[in-house]
Every structure is written in C-alpha cells, then in structure tokens.
Write a structure and sequence with these properties.
The structure holds 3 protein chains of 3 kinds. By secondary structure, chain A is an alpha/beta fold. Chain A contains 15 helices and 11 strands. Chain A is 38% helix and 13% strand. In chain B, the strands form 4 sheets. An 8-stranded mixed sheet of chain B has the order 6-7-10-1-11-12-13-14. Chain B is elongated and about 100 Å long. Chain C is α+β, with helices and mostly antiparallel strands. Chain C has a domain of 38 residues. In chain C, strands 2-3 form a two-stranded antiparallel ribbon. In chain C, a hairpin with a 2-residue loop joins strand 2 and strand 3. In chain C, helix 1 packs across helix 2. The chains are: A alpha/beta, B alpha+beta, C alpha+beta. Chains in contact: A-B, A-C, B-C. At the A-C interface, helix 9, helix 10, helix 11, helix 12 and helix 13 of A face helix 1, helix 2 and strand 3 of C. Strand 2 of chain B pairs parallel with strand 1 of chain C.
Chain lengths: 490, 477, 95
C-alpha cells in the first residue's frame, strides 16, 4: 500500500513511529498532485512551498515528542474557505485576484492542530452547482471515469480525496454540496448539524443553509477531522455554544437496537434502479448488523427543491452584493460611471449560473413577490422540519440514497438548470431543517461508478451518524475501493 | 380656509459606543481614512457580524426613557441597495420587529403649554461610510471608518402641527439622548441627524401626500426647511396642483428645499431577515440592569428643581434643558439659596457664556467658585454689585474670589459705627438736601445712599446704610 | 405570474447585472422554468404555520464593547482595484 492510500490513522501511526516524516509524506502527495491534477483539475492552487515549510515545522514538533492527533497530516481546503496570504477564489472570476488578509476559523483551527495544507480545491462558482462545471477554473473530472462529473459543489474536494491526492479535505454543503460529490466520487462526507462548524471566513452562499464539513475516504477519518473543525466560534453569531465534540468517542458502539427509518419519498420516480438496489443492499447490511428497519414518511420532502430554490437564491442575491468592484473584486475596465462599474463588473465577474440565481433571488424578494414566494417558502421550510421532528420521535437514523443517479457525463445537464437542480433532490431537505447527514459508499454501478447512501440524523446526532457509518464500514469494503488511475505512482 | 401642517420626524442618533455595532473597530471620529476598518465592516468575503451589547443597552435605555414597549424579541433585517459607502450592498437594520416599540415624549412650548408627541418606534441599525467628492477629479473617494457605527433610528408619529413643535420635539429628543449619555448629540459631525416628513391638509381631512426633507443638521435648519416646505406645498395646492411623494434636500445656502433625483426603481429594498444574525432577545435581567443605571430624566429633574430649589416652572425648565447645565446648577445651589443660585446661573453665567460662545462644559468658572461667590453675598462679605465685578474678572482672567476680595479691600463694611460715621459725615456735608428731605422730598434718600456708597467705595452694606440714613434723617434736629 | 423579458431587465438592474440585450430572451426562458419549478409552493396549505428563518432556535449572542481591531489598512486594501490616500476610488458619484 502506498502513502496516498493510507487513512489518517495509518498516517498518524507512521509519523509517530517515524516510518516516514511529514516532509516525506507531503512531498509524496505533492508529486502525486503534480502528476494527476492536470487531468482531474481538483486543485486550483497548490501551496507547495508553504506546505513543505509547515511539514518541516510538524517534523520538528514530532521530534520533540509532540503527539497532536492531526500533527503533520495533509489537508486541502475547498476554495470557499479564506486562507491568509493564499488566493481564495470561490471558483469565480470575481475573486480571481483576491488574497484574503485573514483565514477562516476552520483553516486556523486545522493549522493550529499542525495539519499541512497542500492547497485549495476547485468548486462550483460560489458553491452554486452540482457538477463542478460552473467553476471559472474549468470542470473537475471524476477519478472513477474522467468523462463524468465529480458532483458539486465540493467536487474538487471529493475528486482529490477519491484520487488519493490528499487523505482528507474540507467541503461545504448548502443543498448537498458535500454529500452529492462524496456519493459520486465514492468517498465519505458529512454535513454536520447547522452551527457545528464556524462559518467565519467561509464565503457565504446561503447563510441559513451553509455548513462546513469533512470529506474523507472513511467515516473514521471524517470523525477525526470533524473533531478538530467543530467548535463554538464567537465570531459567528450562528455558531452553536455546544458545537464542540469528540466524534471518535462513540465510533465503535454496536448497531444493536438502532432504529432505522426508510422514507418512502426517497424511493419514488426518478431513482436509478442500480442506485435503488445498492442502497437497499446497504440497508439490509445495517439490518444484519442489528438495526431494526421501518418505513417512514416525510410528506413534505417533495417540496424541498422548490423551497430551496426560493430561499437559497434569495439569501445568495444579498450575500453576493458585496462583490461590487469597489474594494477587492474584479472591476470592469469598461466602467466609466458608477452604475457601469456595478453593472459591468458584476456581469463580467459572475458566471451564468451565479447570475441566474442572483436574478431569481432578487426577484422573489422584490416588492409584491415577497409574501408569495419568500414567506411561503419559509413556512414550507417549517413543515419540512416538522416532518423530521416527527420522524425522529420514532427512529434514530433515516437512510436513503444520496443522489437519484450516479455520476453523469460532463455537459449532460448544462442546457437545463432545473434538471441540474434535481440532482440534489434527496439532500436539500436536510439543509432546510439544519440536521446532520452523511454520505458513504454502498456499491457500484455495472459501469463502475460509485453509489452513495445517505444517513440523516436529528439535531446534534452527528456522532451517531459517524458511528453507524463507521460500523457499516467495518463490515463492508466499498470505501476501500480505489479508482484505477493510470498516472505514475507516488 | 386654513391649511394644517402635519410633521413627523425621523432622527438618526449615533450611539456613543466604543466600537462599531457588528465588529470591534473603534468609532472615534476623525481618524485616517479606512484606518478604522476590518474584514467585517469592509464586507470581505466570509466575514460575519456579531452584535455589540452596548448598542443594545443604549437602545433599551432610550426605550425606558420614553416609556416605550421594549420588544423582548426583535429581528435584524437586510435593506438591500447598491452604494459605494455601503460595503455589503445591504444595510443591517430592523424592519418588522424593532427593539423599541411605541413610546412618547412630552414637549414644553414657549407659551408654557405642553404637548405629547408619539414615538412610533426606534430601531438599531448600522451607519454607512462617507463619500468624498471634492478631493479627486472625476472620482469619488470612499472612507469606511464610519461604516458600521451604531445608529438608533427614532421615528415619531405625525403628531407635530408647526415648525415650533417640531423644533421643540427635536430639542427634547436631543436633550434626552445626551441625558442618557447614549449619543454625543453633535449635529455638525452628524452624530444626531434629522429627516422631516411634511404634508399639508385641511383641518380634519385625511393626511396629505408628504415630502421627506433630508439634511437637516441644526434646529434652525429644521425650522426654516419646514417653513419653506409649507409655503411650497401651499402654493402648489392652492394653484390646483398635487404634491409628489419624494425626497427633498434642504439647501441652507439658498434656504430652500429641492427634489433629489428620482430613483424610482432603486427603491425596492428587498428587506428580509438577516440570516447571519439570530433574533435579539431582551432578558428581563438586562432590562432591569439598564433601568437601575438610568440617570434622572429631564422631566423628573425639572419637577424636583421646582420643589427642592423653589424655582418657577420656567427657571426649572431652562436649568434642566441640558444635563451639563443642570449638574452645574446643582453644584452651585448646594448650600446656598436656590433662587439666588438660579439667578446667577441663568443671568450672569449664561450671559457670559453666550457672549463668549463657550459651552457650559467648558465654562472657565467652576460651579464651586460660583457657589463661593454666592455664599460671599449671602454672608454679607460682599455686595451683589461687587460680586458682579468679581464674576466678570474671574470669568475672563481667573483668580481666587477671597484673594481678590482681600487684596482689593472689597469686603463689605458692616461695622455700624463705621457706617454711622460715614452717614453723619454725608448728612453734615449736605444741609440743603437734608432740609429738602425733611420737607417731604422722599426721593432724596437715594441721593444720600449713593453718596454714602460712593464714600465707602461701594463696600458699605446697603441695608445698613439705608437703615442708618432713615434713622438719622427722620430724627428731629 | 410570468418572468417575462421586462421583469428580467428590471430585476437585472436591481441586482446590478448588465445583461446584454441578446441574452435576455434565453435568460428569461431559464428563469421562467425555475419559477415554474417553485410555483408548486403556492398550492401548499400553510395557514397558521410560522415562517422558519433559521435552523437554530437560539438567540443572538452579544459581544462586549471592547476595541479588538487595530489599523490594518494596508493589508485590507491590498486587493483593491483603485485606491488613493487610503481611500477606495470609484467613478464620480453624482448626487
């Protein structure tokens, strides 16, 4: 086995035992990135020099006998997290030349743990997309089949982890942006309970839905990373006072007596039969491990997509107003008047999908439509949350498919934005409610594309989701499968 | 038939917190451009607002002071529009649920009458930055030091019916925020700004269409702008026209209001609850704590002055119009007769300050010094006339009262024998006038008093001089 | 209600996006589709349902009124497209 296949736990053991140094590990992954990234396009920035320097510092600390859980371990960040002195583009031309003078809380926390940042990961522009094709820096390709999309918006994170360019990565999830690419790339990704992970320095798409999370090849690695990410942050008013937790503690609890709910609404029309079969097999596996399975209803779940496409664009239209060509963004050279400066800079700086969502959001908030759309959607959001409340009175975990279909070909859904929106049909309700959810691999299609199974939990049941996923991964090996990448081995 | 003017005011009071409302940048005035900024108030990507507790406490204090409903649950909303001094492209304000609900303010008019003006609401919001148009050719410079400074927007009911009432309300509000020490009230620097909604109607008719007048940065401008606006609207209405609902700017140089460019489509502010901030919940304990720390408010102080110092309603009103003056007066009146102290503060002191263009807080004569001066009158060390001379001197040149009295021998002569000697001397020297007086020319008493005072260089106690003169003059030969 | 080309132009101006004339029909068509997707909300019965603005049932935390930022103007303005004398520059604003 090569270093790039190692789990965080294995890497940590290797570092502690001095089987290899943090610098050797870093160099080996940087080499793999240089080899594979030109085709995958997962990284938009590789911070080679800084990475080697922090690896050297980590080695010095390890030599002194320090034993931090994440000390010397490599990570890469979705390019939505601000990183001091390293470009942060959010996948947009608008921020092509932006270097944040500060780091996101998440970035700071992981750096303080001694993690070695290898670079910044590609993403759909401003996290708006489900295929990573809206990035200004070009699409990311799926390591399992480079003709296919990796999913989005955290597609660079998912592809990088799946391809072994980095063992773990951060992602963000507003409507499925961690889980959907995790499913399409065959990795494990958790969107924590809203308020677990600080949003400070994480560029906002839709503030009441956005949540940072962990992406890795196993639930255990997700738990390790999330334990360092989750914390109350006084700089984020929406950070929960009880955000911090050690997610490793309950990881091994047996699944005996676990009550699993399977929502009828997740198995209806539009679900690919191969995906349905693999997820059903996953559910059977949980039953075999001691869980009791019951059918449940989430009657308002079918309204989640329409609710989301009012609320998320509304918040986004306002959140993205700060990108105006005045203080740090792209400024159109054509601008002669102030109005021009705004109109041209914003038109040039934003891609088509971002502009579309800004227009929808502006429209639903404008005079005369607020009550009909925005307020109505907020009410339906309440109903969707109520569905989950009722369900979690009866079950501990809800299980279903993460996506209706496996990875689709690049370009397949670009003509019709609505078709693309439906890729998130099973993931969106979770964000509206603010509950945690996780995607883990549960099989492959005949053509060799990964399939993801989604676990949803009640507020602050993140640890339970990681526990269930971990136990499942103890009894299955879907998460150990690796794409066959022809490039030279590191 | 007459027109009735209907006026409502919107006042923006900058809260005098140490830091901005949503970040830890200082709020001090006059710093280098953009040196008081951070990722939050520059609206950099990913930066998030956290509410300043002092801004909340000051809003609570204001609500308590006007007897308002305090909303235990209020919500911050975004007001969306593009302007270079508004970095986020939206202003964080409160819309549907403001922190302070309905309250009221009683104003005293010059004729002694009182009027209650309703306050619709007061809400917390952030100030914008400043645009500097003058410094560059074809360019505007943006300074965001002020962006994010906390504001309390105080909206009145359309309860005022004259420019005098509007000015009285604004002055009362101005005094109140300074009493509460929640705003420095500096109108020149823009810490206390006022917009006026003005409309005309026939008495008893529904409200007319209003114009909103901006840029009223003094009491005088408010008065003049309203007066101008009344005439303008009257002209239009009486010639059969109708008023356009619009925003107008008061131009002090020309003493007129003029329409600001119509920005119709820009007026869709798309308010919605700010998802970066949670509902502001006011705990009873917080409200109580603020209540305990409230100073005595102007109305209560005025009542107390009338009782404690035996002052007229008018005097008490003048002395309590500002907290600094009221505090000054109380320190003067401590241990001396209240009315006498009031006369000195309102007369000589305010007169001198006015003439010198100095504010009470910068008064060169301390309250303790003025009290000593009043005490020296009360204990008959000096006469009132001498006191006025000493006051003039210490106001302009400083100095110690007792030292001045002693070094110049200004001490009042109260020794009966000494005064009697002077009286006898004057009587002996003016036999003609003595005869006149005795023949019934009572007015000549003034002549004798004057002569004695002159002889004593103003130091003889006038009461004693009077008494002794009468005694001697009325005594038959 | 229709997201016609007029509505697209009006909304684009509100959002300060300079949509070229020839893009308007295509954008209108896409927005129309999106609005058709969300239109189903109108049919849902929500009488008496409280609007949900936020997933957290928490209250706004408060920050002590203490200065925590110092002058970082140089760093903060480093990515600015146009500055002079410590000011951000924009084309002349006409009042």
């Amino acid at each position: 086995m090569d270093l790039h296949d190692f789990s965080l736990r294995q890497l940590r053991e290797g570092l502690q035992k001095r089987d290899f140094s943090a610098q050797e590990l870093t160099k080996s992954l940087l080499k793999r990135i240089h080899t594979l990234n030109p085709e995958l396009n997962a990284f938009v920035t590789v911070t080679e020099a800084a990475a080697l320097e922090s690896a050297a510092q980590a080695d010095a600390r390890l030599a002194k006998g320090e034993s931090g859980t994440l000390l010397g371990l490599p990570i890469a960040h979705k390019d939505i997290f601000c990183t001091a002195d390293v470009p942060t583009t959010c996948g947009s031309k608008m921020l092509k030349n932006f270097v944040a003078p500060y780091s996101a809380t998440v970035v700071e926390r992981l750096a303080a743990e001694g993690m070695v940042m290898l670079g910044k990961l590609n993403m759909d522009e401003f996290a708006m997309g489900s295929s990573n094709e809206t990035s200004y820096f070009g699409p990311v390709r799926n390591p399992w089949n480079t003709e296919m999309v990796p999913g989005g918006s955290s597609g660079g994170s998912a592809a990088a982890v799946a391809a072994g360019l980095v063992p773990v990565a951060t992602g963000t999830d507003t409507g499925g942006s961690i889980r959907q690419p995790a499913a399409l790339c065959g990795i494990t990704g958790i969107k924590p309970t809203y308020g677990r992970v600080s949003r400070y320095g994480m560029i906002a798409f839709a503030s009441s839905l956005d949540q940072g999370g962990a992406m890795a090849r196993s639930a255990e690695d997700c738990a390790l990373l999330l334990s360092a990410m989750a914390a109350h942050d006084p700089r984020d008013s929406t950070s929960h006072p009880a955000a911090a937790s050690d997610f490793l503690r309950g990881l091994d609890r047996p699944l005996q007596g676990l009550r699993v709910g399977v929502p009828e609404e997740f198995f209806g029309e539009g679900l690919d039969p191969e995906v349905a079969a693999a997820v059903q097999a996953g559910i059977d596996q949980l039953a075999k491990q001691g869980a009791s399975i019951q059918s449940i209803r989430l009657p308002n779940n079918p309204h989640a997509v329409s609710t989301y496409y009012v609320l998320a664009p509304a918040e986004a239209s306002s959140n993205l107003s700060r990108f105006d060509g005045v203080r740090y963004t792209h400024r159109s050279s054509a601008a002669e008047s102030l109005d021009d400066l705004y109109l041209q800079s914003r038109y040039e700086g934003f891609g088509a999908e971002v502009r579309r969502r800004i227009l929808v959001g502006t429209y639903v908030l404008s005079a005369g439509y607020y009550d009909a759309y925005y307020l109505k959607a907020q009410q339906v959001r309440s109903l969707i949350r109520e569905d989950f409340r009722r369900a979690f009175a009866e079950v501990d975990v809800i299980v279903g498919p993460t996506t209706p279909e496996p990875a689709f070909p690049l370009g397949a859904k670009n003509a019709d934005p609505v078709a693309m929106y439906l890729a998130d049909i099973y993931t969106i309700a979770v964000n509206l409610a603010g509950i945690p959810a996780l995607s883990l691999p549960c099989g492959f299609t005949q053509s060799g594309l990964p399939i993801g199974m989604q676990l949803m939990g009640d507020y602050f049941a993140d640890d339970l989701l990681l526990n269930v996923a971990h136990r499942y991964q103890q009894e299955s090996d879907w998460h150990l499968a690796r794409p066959n990448l022809k490039a030279g081995e590191a | 038939m007459d027109w009735e003017v209907v006026i409502g005011l919107e006042v923006h009071a900058q809260l005098n917190t140490a830091t901005k409302i949503f970040c830890g940048c200082p709020t001090t005035f006059g710093a280098e451009p953009n040196s008081h900024t951070c990722p939050v108030c520059l609206a950099m990507p990913g930066a998030l607002p956290v509410l300043n507790e002092a801004a909340v406490d000051k809003a609570i204090a204001f609500g308590l002071a006007i007897g308002a409903e305090l909303n235990r649950h209020s919500v911050f909303a975004r007001k969306n529009y593009f302007y270079p001094d508004l970095p986020k492209g939206y202003q964080i304000s409160q819309y549907e649920l403001p922190v302070v609900g309905k309250g009221r303010l009683t104003v005293q008019m010059a004729d002694g009458s009182e009027k209650v003006i309703g306050v619709t609401r007061a809400h917390l919001e952030e100030d914008a930055g400043k645009s500097l148009h003058e410094a560059f050719v074809g360019q505007t410079g943006i300074d965001l030091n002020r962006a994010g400074t906390p504001l309390l927007e105080i909206v009145s009911e359309p309860d005022m019916r004259s420019s005098a009432e509007a000015v009285a309300y604004l002055k009362k509000l101005h005094a109140l925020v300074r009493y509460l020490e929640i705003c420095d009230g500096n109108m020149q620097e823009g810490s206390f700004r006022c917009d006026a909604n003005v409309s005309l109607r026939r008495p008893g008719a529904p409200f007319g269409t209003r114009a909103e007048i901006k840029n009223l940065n003094s009491f005088r401008f408010l008065e003049k702008a309203i007066e101008y606006e009344i005439l303008r609207q009257k002209d239009i209405l009486e010639s059969g026209g109708s008023i356009v609902q619009e925003t107008r700017l008061y131009d002090a140089n020309r003493d007129e209001t003029r329409s600001m460019r119509n920005k119709e489509e820009a007026n869709d502010y798309r308010y919605f609850p700010d998802p970066d901030l949670l509902p502001l919940v006011l705990a009873e304990a917080r409200i109580e704590k603020v209540r305990q720390s409230l100073p005595e408010l102007p109305d209560a102080k005025r009542e107390r002055f009338m009782q404690a110092y035996q002052l007229s309603a008018y005097d008490a009103g003048v002395l309590t119009a500002g907290r600094d003056l009221a505090d000054y007066y109380e320190r003067v009146a401590d241990g001396v007769e209240g009315k006498l102290a009031a006369n000195w503060v309102m007369g000589d002191l305010l007169g001198a300050l006015n003439k010198a263009g100095v504010e009470i807080q910068d008064c060169p004569v301390s309250a303790e010094k003025l009290r000593l001066l009043v005490q020296r009158i009360e204990d008959k060390t000096i006469s009132g006339k001498i006191a006025k001379e000493i006051f003039e001197e210490i106001f302009h040149q400083g100095g110690e009262i007792d030292a001045i009295i002693d070094s110049r021998g200004l001490r009042q002569i109260t020794d009966v024998a000494a005064i009697a000697a002077m009286v006898d001397e004057i009587i002996a020297a003016n036999p003609q006038q003595v005869a006149g007086f005795r023949a019934g020319k009572d007015k000549l008493l003034g002549f004798f008093v004057g002569q004695v005072m002159k002889a004593s260089q103003g130091k003889a106690n006038p009461d004693q001089v009077n008494a002794l003169l009468l005694e001697r003059l009325q005594k038959p030969e | 209600m229709a997201f016609d080309e007029d509505a697209v132009r009006r909304t684009a101006y509100l959002a300060r996006l300079a949509l070229p004339m020839d893009e308007v029909p295509a954008v209108a068509n896409q927005l129309e589709k999106i609005m058709a997707l969300v239109e189903e909300l109108c049919a849902i019965s929500t009488e008496g349902v409280l609007p949900m603005a936020h997933p957290l049932d928490l209250e706004q935390p408060l920050r002590p009124d203490q200065v925590s930022n110092h002058d970082e103007r140089q760093r903060l303005m480093a990515s600015a497209p146009a500055t002079e004398h410590g000011l951000f520059l924009v084309p002349k604003v006409i009042e």
